[in-house]
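Duplicate of #3305? Posting structure anyway:
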């Protein structure tokens, strides 16, 4: 069992998430640029989280990852609470990164994505997906190493993005 994550596991779950939303957004976030609107979305996420789930170990921070809550059973369940499915790929990859990170620490787990507004859950396992995670980690590192943000590409995600003004105004 390794005591610490490998050196390349110094990225945050949110960075993996943003890679699949928008590389420009990832770059701004990684450089510590935060905007007002971002915190409103975070607050909404926290509200949904606290309203819908009780009795679990919440907001578990392990190294660079911060898990919404964990359930301990035969196998550890890592739970993430999300508002909707429009960013489902990003949610999935973030959860896979958590499982990958935990595996490097010698912890086998599965992930559950919770969509309380939709009353849905989705189970995710790491089996056969490690290369995908490693590729995502490399892409995040490459984007973070850039001295200027990747050129923005306008999509429907931009309307709700905290960085809209930086890209388009
Ligand atoms: S406004 Fe659009 S292009 Fe700019 S960071 Fe946000 S999602 Fe990316």
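Output from current build:
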């Amino acid at each position: 069992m390794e005591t610490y994550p490998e050196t390349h596991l110094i990225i945050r779950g949110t960075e993996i998430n943003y890679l699949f939303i928008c590389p420009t957004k990832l770059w701004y976030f990684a450089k510590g640029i935060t905007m007002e609107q971002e915190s409103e979305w975070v607050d909404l996420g926290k509200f949904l989280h606290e309203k819908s789930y009780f009795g679990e170990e919440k907001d578990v921070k392990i190294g660079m990852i911060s898990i919404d809550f964990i359930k301990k059973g035969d196998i550890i369940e890592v739970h993430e609470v999300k508002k909707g499915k429009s960013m489902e790929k990003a949610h999935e990859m973030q959860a896979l990164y958590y499982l990958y990170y935990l595996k490097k620490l010698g912890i086998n787990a599965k992930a559950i994505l919770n969509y309380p507004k939709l009353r849905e859950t989705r189970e995710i396992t790491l089996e056969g997906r490690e290369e995908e995670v490693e590729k995502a980690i490399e892409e995040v590192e490459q984007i973070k190493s850039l001295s200027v943000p990747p050129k923005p590409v306008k999509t429907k995600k931009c309307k709700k993005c905290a960085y809209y003004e930086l890209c388009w105004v």
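Confirmed duplicate; merging threads. The chain has a mean pLDDT of 86. Residues 22, 24-25, 152-153, 157-158, 161, 163-164, 167 surround iron/sulfur cluster (CB under 6 Å).
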